[in-house]
Amino acid sequence: MAKTANTDSDFFGFEELLTEEERNELAWIREVLRREIKPIANQAWDRAEFPFEAIETFAKLGIAGFQFPEYGDGFARRPLFNGFLSVELNKVDPSLAVASGVHTGLAMGSIYGGGDQRQRDRWMPELVAWNKIGAFGLTEPEGGSDVAGGMRTTARREGDEWVLNGAKRWIGNGTFADLVVIWARDEADGSVKGFVVEKGMPGFHASKIEGKIALRSVQNADLSLENVRVPEDNRLQNIENFRDTAKVLAKTRGNVAWQALGVAVRAYELAREYAVTREQFGKPIGGFQLVQDLLVKMLGNITAMFGMVTRLAQKMADGTAGPDHAALAKSFTTTRMRECVSWARELFGGNGIVLDYEVAKFFADAEAVYSFEGSREMNTLIVGKSITGQSAFA
């Protein structure tokens, strides 16, 4: 007689490291996402449209304030809890998870970490409430991995204003954001500075990037800045050079590792459910050795990923996590995620390429998660420098 199946993708029970209060809050968030976001996610992805009704749900959940308690509900969530939250968001829809992450991690993180108190008080409350939406403009048409040294967007001081010229590419939320943090090189001293560009400023234009095969609901944009005049009050006062920008990226890179875990978990869950319900040759395909082998390899990857990101969250909490830790986590988890979604799609056979079975979306979205926030190769070089003391960057 067959034993009762263990359907838990968290096979070793990492969620048990959360407090009871944290687990209860996570369960509530999970249910709200399942009820309000999941029903609209696939159609929005198929149409490559952003479902703006999701913003109301995110505001109700209060997730924009979790990392900034003084502007949220006053209760600081631990990095471990925020990691599990990322898993839940990505299990429901990676596109909306990315849109949320751009807003809360990149845009709000830049303003909170790079702005002075006056600037934080000016913008953070509206961003926490989702009354204004943020975006982050770093990547350029000719500068991805090399954007630090090859940044072409410029800033020129003229009295109490700065004049920005240049272009940015792949800017999530860029088509509708109210505030876009633009990184530009000061013509006077060559240092990189951050500026909050507001919707409607003359000379600032955004156009949607079409034809994407991944994260289709994310409204990525090409941005152009033609003599955009930004007041000095909109220059992030605590940003002195690109190293300050890198501090923001190091934090969000760790979140991408959790995001990769969420994508892998959902692909595994879909594959396991399909394996025990899809019948061929007179029985569920989950009873065949080769299918079980795929599922177990996926579960092994997921368990290893859980272990790495959990430890990363613990190190973030105690202040011992470095950029190399985040880089290794991002590189490792996105590689394992890519394997998992590939095996999941393989298990579905022909059904794995249509949106009806959902796994196709995660298979496609994984390619974007694998690429952004530093490619595997660039993150490898960050870790390589850490462990050898030798820089292999070109």
TrEMBL record:
GO BP terms in the entry: fatty acid beta-oxidation
Domain Acyl-CoA dehydrogenase/oxidase C-terminal: 245-387
GO molecular function: acyl-CoA dehydrogenase activity; flavin adenine dinucleotide binding
Keywords associated with the record: FAD, Flavoprotein, Oxidoreductase
Keyword Ligase: no
Statement: the UniProt record of this protein carries the keyword Chaperone: no
Pfam families per the UniProt record, alphabetical: Acyl-CoA_dh_1, Acyl-CoA_dh_M, Acyl-CoA_dh_N
Membrane-crossing residue ranges in chain numbering: none
Domain annotation Acyl-CoA dehydrogenase/oxidase N-terminal: ranges: 19-129
Cofactor(s) recorded in Swiss-Prot or TrEMBL: FAD
InterPro entries the UniProt entry points to: ACX4-like, Acyl-CoA_DH_CS, Acyl-CoA_Oxase/DH_mid-dom, Acyl-CoA_Oxase/DH_mid-dom_sf, AcylCo_DH-like_C, AcylCo_DH/oxidase_C, AcylCoA_DH/ox_N, AcylCoA_DH/ox_N_sf
UniProt domain Acyl-CoA oxidase/dehydrogenase middle: residue ranges: 135-228
Domain of life according to the entry: Bacteria
Family statement: Belongs to the acyl-CoA dehydrogenase family.
PANTHER family: ACYL-COA DEHYDROGENASE, ACYL-COENZYME A OXIDASE
Name this protein carries in UniProt: Acyl-CoA dehydrogenase
